[in-house]
Design goal:
99 residues, alpha+beta, two-stranded parallel ribbon, two-stranded antiparallel ribbon, 3 helices, 6 strands
């Protein structure tokens, strides 16, 4: 509950335990009953889920975001004439070398 009281949530869309719905609405957020919610207000993204039962969906969502980030970095490297290499693939890292 302390997080709700201290966090500026106006214009945010959030998922949470149903018991927090009224508190979130009272501080200006919109509450939705979905497993994973992205809210892009105020120039940064807040990703929320309802409860621990949504963890598999939340993890899948984060993997998708990470995969998109890696592909975006690789495309930018190619645009700069570099070829991406993946020496840290086990940890998801990426380096670039001149083509």
């Amino acid at each position: 509950m302390a997080r709700v009281a201290r966090t500026p949530l106006r214009h945010r869309v959030e998922a949470s335990y149903p018991s927090l719905r009224t508190d979130l609405i009272n501080v200006g957020a919109s509450w939705v009953d979905e497993p994973v919610v992205h809210s892009n207000a105020a120039g940064w993204t807040l990703i929320t889920s309802r409860d621990p039962g949504d963890l598999p969906d939340f993890i899948d969502d984060r993997r998708g975001i990470r995969r998109a980030h890696i592909l975006n970095r690789a495309a930018k490297a190619r645009d700069r004439g570099l070829r991406p290499v993946r020496p840290f693939a086990a940890r998801g890292g990426m380096a670039t070398v001149a083509a």
